[in-house]
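User: Hi! I'm working on a homework problem where we have to compare a predicted structure to a textbook description. Could you give me the structure for the chain below?
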Amino acid sequence: ELVDYVRKLQDISSLEKLLVEHLGLKKVVVIPGDCDEEDVVKREIGRAAAAILNNLLSDGQEHIIAVSGGTTMAALASNVSGYAPQAVIVPARGGLGDNVEDQANTIAAVLGRKFGAKYKQLYVPDGVSEDILNSILAEDTTVKSVVEVIRKADILVHGMGQAGEMAKRRGLEEQVLQQLVEDGAVGEAIGQYCSLDGKVVYVTNNAGLMVNDMLKIK
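Assistant: Happy to help. Predicted structure tokens:
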């Protein structure tokens, strides 16, 4: 209830405007909080992201929503409300790690049930080799049909992770981990590892969305 007052006291609107101009984005929403209180911050990010997603779906149009995995996306899923039976929810990429609650498939299912919408699952691990990926897509028509829907997504909701931490979760080889450090990789999103200046230094294979697909998402 005090969010508007907090924003004024901390001059958050000025920070949002600065980021919009510097990064060339249409809109930025900054959440006040202490990064040392990680769970609290993620909950608030999830709440804000859920409000934005609810607003996007309020137009009553048909949307295909691709959602990534991770603890922040799980926080979003726990905060969404409303009814959007016209939407289709899909995982943005394949599975990663052992925590089922944070998998993109699980989050897509939670969102689908909460919105009363259809949802699809992608049963392919993240980061498989290109040969294995091509073999799966060639032989499994179900996976191929889900991938075709994912690549038609017009809304993408995804989190960002620390590059080293995400590389370890993917089980990348020590040689690759060392190369990421040398190349200055600091952040990861949608399998794309970037340096602080935005240069892509490494990309993992996946049956879902890749970097070039993002240009087509509204």
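For your comparison, note the following. The mean pLDDT is 88. The chain has nine helices and eight strands. Good luck with the assignment!
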